[in-house]
Fold each of these.
Amino acid sequence: MVYKLFCSIVFVGFMGACAHKTNEYIFDEVESVKIDESQIVLTRFPSEMKNITDSIVATINSAQSVSLYNIHSGKNIANFDLKKTNFDSLIQNTFQKKHADTKKYLYSNGFELNGENYQLTTFDYSNNRFWIHASVIVEVHHLKEDAKTLPKHKNNEKIIELQKQYDSINIIEMGYLNFIFETDNDFIIKAIHPLYGEEILKENNYFPYYNKGFFVLNNCIYTPIGKMDESFNRLENKMNVAPDNYCLAKINLLDAEKIAYKLHLSNISFADYTLRDYIEARFRFKEYKNSFLFSNGKEISEIENEKKILDKKILTTNEWIADYCFLENESLVLITYEIDKKQPFDPSKPVFPKYKIKIIDPVSSILLKELVLDIKSSTVTLTKNKIIYLDRDDENYSFKQINYHEK
Amino acid sequence: MMKIILSSKSIIMKNNLCIAALCILLFAFGCTKKSIKNKSYLHVLVDSLPIDKTTNIFIYSINPNDCVNCLYGFSQINTRLSEITNSKIYILAVDRAIEKNELMKTSKGINLYDSINKVVLWNKNTFYTVGAAANKKNVAGVSLLTIYNYTTDSIVYSMPVKEISNAEGLMKYTN
C-alpha cells in the first residue's frame, strides 16, 4: 500500500514537472513617462532601441547619437556621438593606407542641417561594451581603372561617351566606409575597428548589411549578408534564396581576411522576400542558453548548428516579428506586427503597424497566449517581463511600458 | 397680304436680336468664368508672404530627416544658390517648437531666420503639400528644390535635391 502510494506521488510529481506551460499571463496597465530632451532633441522615433538593464534602454536617435535612458524616469543618462571625431585623420590612417595605390578617399563636412556625413545605424551591447556601427560618406577617387570598379559602370551612357573621347577615365563615386566604435559603459572609446571585410565578401559575391544589425563575440562581428545579384537592384525583385547561400558572415575585427559564412538559407527561410521585405524586416540577434539566435523577421534559427527554433508557419502572411525573447519557463515570446502594404502612403496620416504579443511553446509550436496591443509606434522592444515602446503627442515623446508575468 | 409679310419679317428680326443678345451674354459669362479660375496652392501660399513676387521664387522644401546622401549633394550647391537675389522660401518639415529651436541653434550652413525676400516656414503639412503640388511623382518626405513663377502661377523647375548635381544649371532661372 505504502509502495503504491509512493509510486502515485512520484507519478503525480513527474506529470506536474512535464505539464504544458500555462497560458495564464497577466498584462498590467500601461505606464508612461515623458522623455528628457534637454540634451538630445528627438526629430523622429528612434530607429533602434534595446534594453541594457531592467531600467535602462539605449536608442539610436536621428542616426547621429546613441543615447541611454532610464525608462522609469525618462531621464537621458548619457549620449554618444561622433561630432568631435576627426574623420579625415581616421580615414587616412585606415582605409587610405590600405588602398593607397588604387583609391583616394575624401571626406567633407556634411549638410549642417542634419549633422555630419556619417550615420550611426545600429549597435550591440555585450560584456560591458557597446559596439556601435558608423557609416561614413566619402568621395572615392579611383586612381586607376581596375577590373572591379569599371564593370558595374559599363552600361552607363555618360561613361561610354567619355570612353570614346578619352584614352582613360577616372571614376569618382560616393561610397560608404564602415567602422565599429567600441566603447565602455560611459561611452569612452576603447577601440575603432575599420570594417575591411567588405572587399573579401565581394570576391565571393556577397555584400554586408551592417545596418540590419549584428552582434560581437570574441572580437568577431556576425552580420547579415546579401548576394550581389539582380535581386538587390530593385525593391520589388524577389531575393535569391538558393539554399547553398548564406545569410550571415562572421568577420574578425582584428584580421579582416578571416571570414566565415554562417547559416544557410536552407535553414532560415527568405522565401517570397522582396528586397523591400529584406530592408524593412527587423533582424534580431539574441543569446540564449549559451548559443546565439538569429531572426530574419519571419523565422528564428540557431546560428552555429543552424537548428530552426521558430517556423514562419506560426505567423500569417503579412505578420512579421518585431522582437522576441525566452521566459524562465522556456516559453518563447514574440512581438509581431502587420502592415497593410496596399494602403497608399499618406504622410499626413501616419499608419502604425498592428502589434500583437504571442507566447508560444517552441517545442510544440502551440500558441499559449495572444494579445492585441494598442501601440502607435515604430520603436518597440521586449524583455522577459515588459514590453517597452515609444509614443508621442504633438509636443512630447514618451516611454511606455507594459509589464507582464505568468499568473 | 403685305401686312402679314411685314409682321413675319419683324418677328424674325426680333428673334435674331434675341439670339444675338443671348450669344453676347453667354460669351461675356464665359469670359468672366475664366477670370475667376482658382489659383494654385503655391499661389495662395506665396501670396501670403512678404517677398518680391516679380521674379522666379526659389522654394526649398527640406526634411531634416532625409537620408544623409540625399542632402549631401544639396550642401555642395547651397553656397552658390545663396548668392542669388531671387526671393527664397524655406519650408522645414518640422512642427515641434523644441525641434525648431534646436535646428536654429545648430544649423551652420543655412540661416534659418527670415530676412528681406526670404521666409522660413516650419510646418510638416506645408512641406508635404508643396511637395505634392510641385512634383506628382515625388516620394513623400523627399527634400525638394522648386522654382515657381507667381505671375504665370506655374512651376518652372522642380527636382529632389539629391538629384541636383550642380547649381550652374539653375542660374538660368534667376534674375
Amino acid sequence: MITTIIREKGEDLKDLDFSKSLYENGLGLDSLDTAAFSAMLEREFGTDPYASGHFPQTVKDVIVFYTSNQANQ
Amino acid sequence: MIYKLLLKAAESHSEKLFIADNSGELTYAEASHQVTLIAQTLQRMKMDRIYFYVKDSRCLIITLIAADLLGIEACVLNRQFSIQEVEGIIGRIGNGYIISDLTNDEKGNIQNIIRQSDQNQVKNASNIRPVKNRPSNVMILTSGTTDKPKAVLYTWERLAAQGRIISEKETTGWLLAYPLNHFAGIQMIIHVLLNKNSLIIPDSWRFDDILNAARRYGVNSISATPTFWRMFAGRITSAQAQSISLKQITLGGEASTSELLEKLRKLFPGASISQVYATTEIGSCFSVKDGCPGFPKNYLNKTIGNVDLKIIDGELYVKSQNCMIGYINQEDKPQISKEFVGTGDLVEIIGDRVFFVGRKSEVINVGGVKVYPLKVEEVISKIAGVQTVRVYGRANPVTGQIVVADIEIAQKSDTSKIINATRQHCRIHLSRYEQPRDIRVVASLPKQNEKIVRRNLNAQNSSS
C-alpha cells in the first residue's frame, strides 16, 4: 500500500527503508498520503489504526496494531 | 388558470392531440370535456385540497385541471414515497382527499381516499363555471435530493407567468420525462398548454418504453435531467437516435457537463440544446442555448427575463418576480418575493463564463481545503466507460474528509481497467486534495425524480 502511494506521487521507490518513520525524514508520507493510507487499510482490513485512535510511526507499528487486534479476538 | 389555457387551446386546436399515455389519447376538445366530467364528481365531494398519490397519467393531468376549475388546492405526491411518508406529509400540510391506486390493505392510516376509477362516475357533462375570486393553488414538494422535502406553494397564475410562448411552424410533441410531483413536471404541463403542443407520457422511464413512446407519437422534444440524458445517451445507438429526430433537447434540475452536451450533439445533430436553471422555490430562472456548461457572465447583475442574478461569496443569488408564495406551515420564514435569495448553488467565474461547481452542502473539506464534487465528477465523466459518477466526502481520521467516487460503468466494461484509468486521469487533471482516495464501481447510483441523490452524504460522512 505504501509503495502504491509513493509510486502514485511519482517518487522514487529505490532505497525505501521500512524501518524508518512513515512520515518526514523517513518514507515521506504527508497528511494526504496518510489519509489515503488510512482509507486503504480500512478497505482492506475493515479497521485502521488511525480511526482507532492510534498514530503509527512506522510500518512495524501498523503490523503490531493488526497482530495485537487479531490476538485480542 | 390552466383550465383557461386548456379552454383557449380547445377553441383554436380542438382536434389536436393534447395528451397520450398507454391507456389512450385525448385531443384538446376531448380533454376539455373530460375535465368538466371529473369536475362534477369532485364538486359533490366539497373538498378544499386534493393529493395525488398515483402513477403519472393523462387522468392525473385532467384531474389537476379539474381541481383548478373548482379552485381546489392540489398536490402531486411522489408515488415512490412509502405510506408512512405520505402520512407524515399530510400530517404536516393538512388533510385533504387523496386520489390513489392504493388497495384497502395498503392504505395504512390514510383517510379520504378516492380510487382513480371512481372519478369517472358522471356520464353527461353539464356546465361548471370556474370558481371566481378563489386563486387556485398548487403545492409542490421539493425533490428531497439535498434536504428533507418541503412543501412549496404557488398559484397556477404565477407558474404560468414563468412559461414562454414559442412561435413554431411545425408540431411539437414533448415526452414527459419529469415526474408530475416535480416542479419541472408541472412546468411541462403549462408549457404544453401555453404552446398548444402534445404531451406524451411513456409507460415507464425504462429505455425501451421511452423509445417506443417517442417513435409511436413522433416525439421531437424532450426535457429531462442530465442524469436521464446520460443514461439515455449511453443506451441509444446512432440508428435509434436517427429514428426519433429530436429537434429540441432541454436539460434541467442538475448541472450539465461538457462531455454530456458533446455526446448529445453528436447523437442528435439536428437538435437545439437548451439548459434551464430553476429551483422549486424561485421557479424558472433562465435558459442557456449556446450548448456550453454554465451560463454567460453577462447574465449577472442585470434582469434576464423575470429574474436578476448576482454572486455573493461564490453562491448564486436570484431575485424572481414569479417565485413561490411561501412554504406551507412555515409562515415565520421570510417571504422571498422580490428579494435576492441564495440558491445554495456555488459558482465560479472563468473568463466570460459562470460555471456551477456544486451545492454549498456538498463541499468536501479535505484538511481545510474545499473540494467541489461537481468539478471532480466533470473530470471523471470524461473517461471512456464511465456512465454516471457521484463524488462525495467520507470521514477520515487524518484530514477530516477524503474524496470518494462511486461510478456506474457501461455494461461489459473492465472494472479494474476503468478504476486505474480514473486514478490516472484524476492525477493529471486534479489537485492532490481533489484526488478521489477511494473509487468504487456500483451497479447503480441512487436516484430520485431522475436526479442523483446527494442528500446528507457529506453530513453522514463527516468526522466533525
